[in-house]
Fold:
Amino acid sequence: MSGVFGFEEEIAYSPQFFGKTPGGDNAMLTLMSNLMVVIPAGPIQPYGIIGLGLMRSHAQFNASSLALDKNSLGWDIGGGLTIFFGHTLGVRGDVRHLRTLQDVTLGVFGNDKVDFWRGSAGLVFRF
Structure:
């Protein structure tokens, strides 16, 4: 981060993303590159993000069936808050809206864009 602008790489994996299926599994992997705008207001810092990246969906209906995978270009937008407890350690939480740019077809799991909201929280280390 430099001043009010920053950059982040975000990796997230969600098992059972499309719901539980007997004898099968499904998941969503997202790899996003995001630009950040941060308001450096002391120890409490709100921020907004916007980015592009890979959204990889996976579905397998039972152990003997063919696995279906789809790589899609996607985007995300969101915002959150970082609270620092001193100079180097803090906590962070945000909410993001993610959506694929292309339609995704995984067998019975529709033929539409994947579109969802996700919340996250974590530790922040500042150097």
User: Anything to note?
Assistant: The first strand starts at residue 5 and ends at 15. The mean pLDDT is 87. The chain has no helices and eight strands. Residues 3 and 126 are 14 Å apart (CA to CA).
